[in-house]
């Protein structure tokens, strides 16, 4: 099943062709939302709550209107927008829906929550206007941690959510699990917390809205991973038909999940443009991006695992609390993190017994969105720590312990009712470990130890469910059920191709990889394929890009549509030659007669389809356009990887230096291996950021600590390790190309591998660290403990 | 993150600028490279009514060697210009000045930020502030009534406050004496961050090369000002640093001397640990120069 990837056989699938996007992006000719300048455009900025929790007793915008340059200022009462409410189809005992007002009305729930919008002739005047607003609050006790939220008699963030709990699910509870724990030879526990992070797209959020009289359409240009979902919410909030809203997404400087939810500011920008009948732009500044957009990752695990004396995993029991901040995000809800964690936590191991309780609690912090990896970096960290701890207790090598428990027979249906399609779990671990051995890291570790240095080697094994279809999302009981995607493939008169996709590249290279898929199917040159995305007028429908869904689902739709188009081209050619279709086949940008080798080029066939349609037989429609959709009817397809890393701890400073990073990944057929490498490396950079650097803290008044990059310690290229990526290839059986998703894996595996390596290096000290980020001070203290 | 309104003035020469500053009084700020002031204005933490841009004052740019061995650097010289100065300009006797520049922010910051801007801003962890104290610099200050020289030891008054009057301009920093056996080192979580702790050491070595006649140890990141550590300096002058335990004793004395803050970058305990490490490291580097 598993093979090393083969060099391309002339097909563009599997070829590391240069990115179509790069010439414009690297020469400064990309076009981002903030680059848009329209005649008469005004600039919006937001009056935001200065307090984390309170009742607004007065909001006076009259002084704002006195500020030179200010054109308008609107509060919730002025705009009367419908709340954004994300729902799950679950009883209120499990899930409490909470509306997120587009502008806060009487109640503010986090510092930075938007209360009013100021529209001015320039961005400076807009900020002057924001300063002039007079807001008074009755302060309420802010809830700044999950522990506070769950404490008896805690202040309620939402009056309708008792115990500040938005989601509370208990699942699986395998019969007899308590007995398994009672009788198991070895039970290990991990109690851990992970830091609150910002997904941190370099391009902050932003929007430009304008009413177009000719199309009788609101045009909303915004940096979003989900253009059609923004359209749905904008239309609902503004009370318009969906077709009266056009959402355009130009080039994007990242999203990482932060932009796969619908924000409030873009809706307000649209509402202001409609009121004023003038274009309005909002560009989020970095301070707001760090404090008042969407965050994620802050989770607490209380987990235990039972192992037999031979090192077989017998049971897993976990209590998961996710601190989701002030509101449910649309469309995923605050359930996104706890549901992901609880349903997928058994990870890559054969697990006979499982019990989990997962909660989403609400606090007075900026709300959470599903950040790259969504809970998987966290539960993988916990599971991999449990394995390391068990190995220590059993006196067994941790890699060997994993080997004994990895899923090796596929398809495998787990105790979590999820069926895992074939992967290379064991092979990737073996290759990763062998690479480390061949490179001599084990000897180096011994030598370093003899010199009193602290080197550690760490691994993580995981798989990542990609290609969530409507079935998988429906199982989560989302009221809005994503899943399928649609592609239209259209050939023009000259024989060139336009491909549309409802997915939305925000750095994933879809203009290249989707073109590779379509070009391969039809034998076209890559340069003759244009990929269009990010415009709800041009694209039929789509669910955007998140959850590593684009290549597996969107790419499959592209291939299907391209295949249909190829069939039509063959049918036209067969008709022209008056032979059965079976006698013709696709060649290079042409249809060939199998027997005599005669050819009709695509341009010649397009000439018939468009300009000489009288030559078409009656059963063939004029034109060359095909639309296809794709959905996943199984539980999805699982990419997998093993990460291995070597760190050195520096006692004098506590610095963790990453000396080596090896990733052995399997995403099925890699459409473009270089793009896969890029995704993997970028993901690992964000995973390392979570392991060692990034954390947003709040003081007891709910004021966030990080307002600039001086305080929010995103690692730079200089802190990011070089990564060697090895590819294995277990093709997916049901996607059209054999590809699996690859967007998130790097981020998922990195925290566990780094943390395990740090703990390996700390072995002589007896200190074990389970929580992230591991700061230099934490390490320094652990090493002091030893000396 | 847009500044409040201000009136922009472009300076033409030092005298004109100091006269203008006297006229404008406390509501004016001098804009040099803008690497600290502009972000503070964007956050509206600084709201000067008037901004006097001195970037065009070419007379304040340059690196000069005096015949007596002094190194003079014009206030508007960028960090990057010092970092890349040829050894004929910044020689072996002042190598520490050039080498310290790699600790200053990131490359884009170094290409715009200026020596004088950093000193006048007076962040206690800034490399220039440490260097000034370490090497006994003289700061040349000019006002409408003339010029004065302020010893570095008298220049820094506290967090972001200096001996500069509101109508005075820092024009030059002079390092009067050679300091071949000097080093500056730091620790921050990321490259380019302000140091959690920084340590600078300068040694006067005797002819034999490993006896210290005089020593200076200056720390950043541990107080509102760069801090000298006389007890630690005394340890180095008392015993040969090469002999066992002397550097440990010196580092310990430095750590005991300070009363560092606890904040998001590290506790007081951790800053003491860093101090031990960095003082030791700086001493070793200075000895081997």
UniProtKB/TrEMBL annotation, chain A:
Signal peptide: none annotated. InterPro entries: Ald_Oxase/Xan_DH_a/b (IPR000674), Ald_Oxase/Xan_DH_a/b_sf (IPR036856), Ald_Oxase/xanthine_DH-like (IPR016208), AldOxase/xan_DH_MoCoBD1 (IPR008274), AldOxase/xan_DH_MoCoBD2 (IPR046867), AldOxase/xan_DH_Mopterin-bd_sf (IPR037165). Transmembrane segments: none annotated. Its cofactor is Mo-molybdopterin cytosine dinucleotide. GO terms for molecular function: iron ion binding; oxidoreductase activity. Pfam families: Ald_Xan_dh_C (PF01315), MoCoBD_1 (PF02738), MoCoBD_2 (PF20256). Residues 27-141 form the Aldehyde oxidase/xanthine dehydrogenase a/b hammerhead domain. Keywords: Molybdenum, Oxidoreductase. PANTHER family: ALDEHYDE OXIDASE 1-RELATED, XANTHINE DEHYDROGENASE. This is Xanthine dehydrogenase. It comes from Streptomyces oceani.
Automatic annotation (TrEMBL), chain B:
The keyword Oxidoreductase applies. Pfam families: CO_deh_flav_C, FAD_binding_5. Residues 1-180 form the FAD-binding PCMH-type domain. The keyword Methyltransferase does not apply. Keywords: FAD, Flavoprotein, Oxidoreductase. It comes from the Bacteria. SUPFAM superfamilies: CO dehydrogenase flavoprotein C-terminal domain-like, FAD-binding/transporter-associated domain-like. One of its GO terms (molecular function) is oxidoreductase activity. PANTHER family: XANTHINE DEHYDROGENASE SUBUNIT C-RELATED. This is Molybdopterin dehydrogenase. It comes from Streptomyces oceani. The lineage of its organism: Bacteria, Bacillati, Actinomycetota, Actinomycetes, Kitasatosporales.
């Amino acid at each position: 099943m598993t093979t090393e990837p083969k060099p391309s056989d002339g097909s563009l699938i599997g070829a590391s062709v240069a990115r179509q996007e790069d010439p414009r992006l690297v020469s400064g000719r990309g076009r981002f939302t903030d680059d848009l300048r329209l005649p008469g455009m005004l600039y919006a900025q937001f009056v935001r709550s200065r307090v984390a929790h309170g009742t607004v007793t007065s909001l006076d915008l009259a002084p704002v209107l006195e500020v030179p340059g200010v054109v308008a200022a609107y509060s919730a009462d002025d705009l009367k927008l419908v709340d954004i409410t994300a729902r799950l189809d679950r009883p209120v005992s499990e899930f409490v829906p909470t509306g997120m007002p587009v502008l806060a009305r009487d109640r503010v729930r986090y510092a930075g929550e938007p209360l009013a919008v100021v529209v001015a002739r320039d961005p400076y005047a807009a900020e002057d206007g924001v300063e002039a607003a007079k807001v008074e609050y009755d302060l309420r006790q802010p809830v700044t941690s999950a522990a506070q939220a769950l404490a008896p008699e805690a202040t309620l963030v939402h009056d309708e959510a008792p115990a500040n709990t938005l989601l509370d699910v208990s699942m699986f509870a395998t019969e007899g699990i308590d007995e398994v724990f009672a009788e198991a030879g070895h039970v290990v526990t991990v109690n851990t917390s992970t830091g609150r992070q910002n997904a941190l797209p370099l391009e902050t959020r932003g929007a430009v809205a304008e009413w177009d009289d000719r199309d009788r359409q609101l045009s909303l240009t915004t940096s979003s991973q989900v253009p059609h979902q923004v359209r749905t919410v904008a239309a609902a909030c503004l009370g318009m038909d969906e077709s009266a809203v056009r959402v355009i997404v130009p080039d994007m400087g990242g999203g990482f999940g932060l932009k796969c939810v619908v924000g409030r500011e873009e809706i307000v920008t649209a509402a202001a443009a409609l009121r004023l009948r003038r274009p309005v732009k909002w560009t989020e500044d970095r301070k707001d991006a760090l404090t008042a957009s969407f965050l994620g990752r802050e989770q607490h695990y209380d987990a235990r695992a039972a192992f037999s004396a031979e090192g077989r995993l017998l049971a897993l029991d976990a209590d998961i609390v996710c601190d989701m901040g002030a509101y449910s995000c649309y469309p995923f809800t605050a359930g996104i993190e706890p549901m992901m964690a609880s349903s997928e936590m058994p990870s890559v191991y054969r697990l006979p017994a499982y019990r989990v309780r997962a909660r989403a609690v609400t606090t007075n912090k900026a709300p959470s969105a599903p950040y790259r990896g969504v809970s998987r970096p966290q539960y993988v960290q916990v599971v991999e720590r449990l394995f390391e701890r068990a190995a220590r207790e059993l006196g067994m090598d941790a890699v060997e312990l994993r080997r004994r428990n990895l899923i090796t027979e596929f398809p495998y249906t787990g105790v979590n009712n999820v069926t895992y399609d074939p992967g290379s779990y064991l092979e990737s671990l073996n290759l990763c470990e062998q690479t480390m051995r061949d490179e001599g890291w084990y000897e180096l570790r011994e030598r370093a130890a003899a010199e009193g240095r602290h080197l550690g080697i760490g691994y993580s094994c995981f798989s990542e469910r990609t290609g969530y279809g409507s079935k998988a999302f429906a199982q989560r009981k989302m009221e809005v059920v994503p899943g399928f995607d649609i592609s239209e493939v259209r050939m023009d008169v000259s024989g060139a191709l336009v491909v549309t996709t409802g997915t939305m590249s925000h750095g994933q290279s879809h203009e290249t990889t989707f073109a590779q898929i379509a070009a391969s199917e039809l034998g076209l040159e890559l340069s003759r394929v244009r990929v269009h995305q990010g415009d709800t007028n041009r694209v039929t429908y789509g669910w955007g890009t998140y959850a590593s869904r684009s290549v597996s689902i969107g790419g499959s739709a592209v291939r299907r549509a391209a295949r249909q188009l190829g069939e039509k081209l063959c049918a036209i050619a067969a008709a022209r030659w008056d032979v059965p279709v079976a006698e013709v086949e696709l060649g290079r940008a042409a249809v060939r007669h199998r027997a005599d080798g005669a050819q009709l080029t695509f341009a010649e066939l397009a000439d018939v389809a468009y300009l000489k349609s009288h030559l078409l037989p009656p059963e063939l429609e004029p034109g060359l356009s095909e639309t296809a959709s794709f959905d996943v009817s199984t539980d999805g397809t699982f990419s997998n990887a093993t990460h291995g890393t070597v760190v050195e701890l520096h006692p004098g400073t506590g610095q963790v230096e990453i000396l080596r990073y090896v990733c052995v990944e399997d995403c099925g057929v890699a459409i473009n291996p270089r793009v896969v490498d890029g995704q993997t490396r970028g993901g690992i950079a964000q995973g390392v950021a979570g392991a060692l650097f990034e954390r947003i803290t709040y003081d007891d008044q709910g004021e966030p600590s990080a307002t600039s990059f001086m305080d929010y310690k995103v690692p730079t290229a200089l802190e990011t390790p070089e990564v060697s990526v090895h590819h294995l290839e277990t093709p997916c059986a049901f996607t059209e190309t054999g590809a699996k998703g690859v967007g998130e894996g790097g981020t998922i595996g990195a925290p566990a591998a780094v943390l395990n390596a740090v703990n390996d290096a700390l072995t002589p000290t007896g200190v074990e660290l389970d929580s992230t980020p591991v700061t230099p001070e934490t390490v320094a203290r652990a090493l002091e403990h030893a000396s | 993150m847009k500044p409040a309104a201000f009136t922009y003035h472009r300076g033409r020469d030092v005298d004109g600028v100091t006269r203008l500053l006297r006229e404008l009084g406390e509501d004016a700020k001098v804009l040099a490279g803008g690497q600290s002031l502009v972000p503070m204005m964007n956050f509206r933490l600084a709201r000067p009514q008037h901004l006097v841009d001195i970037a065009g004052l070419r007379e304040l740019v340059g690196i000069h060697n005096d015949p007596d061995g002094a190194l003079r650097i014009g206030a508007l010289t960028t960090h990057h210009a010092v970092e890349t100065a040829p050894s004929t300009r910044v020689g072996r006797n002042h190598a520490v000045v050039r080498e310290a520049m790699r600790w200053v922010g990131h490359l884009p910051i170094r290409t715009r930020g200026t020596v004088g801007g950093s000193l006048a801003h007076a962040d206690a962890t800034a490399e220039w502030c440490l260097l000034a104290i370490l090497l006994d610099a003289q700061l040349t200050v000019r006002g409408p009534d003339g010029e004065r020289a302020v010893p570095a030891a008298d220049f820094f008054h506290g967090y972001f406050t200096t001996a500069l009057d509101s109508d005075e301009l820092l024009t030059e920093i002079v390092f009067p004496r050679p300091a071949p056996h000097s080093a500056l080192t730091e620790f921050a979580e990321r490259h380019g961050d302000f140091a959690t702790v920084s340590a600078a050491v300068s040694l006067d070595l005797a002819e034999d090369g490993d006896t210290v006649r005089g020593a200076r140890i200056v720390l950043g990141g541990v107080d509102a000002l760069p801090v000298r550590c006389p007890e630690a300096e005394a340890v180095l002058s008392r015993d040969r640093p090469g002999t066992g335990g002397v550097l440990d004793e010196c580092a310990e004395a430095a750590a005991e001397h300070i009363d560092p803050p606890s904040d998001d970058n590290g506790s007081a305990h951790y800053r003491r640990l860093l101090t031990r490490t960095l003082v030791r490291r700086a001493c070793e580097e200075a000895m081997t120069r």
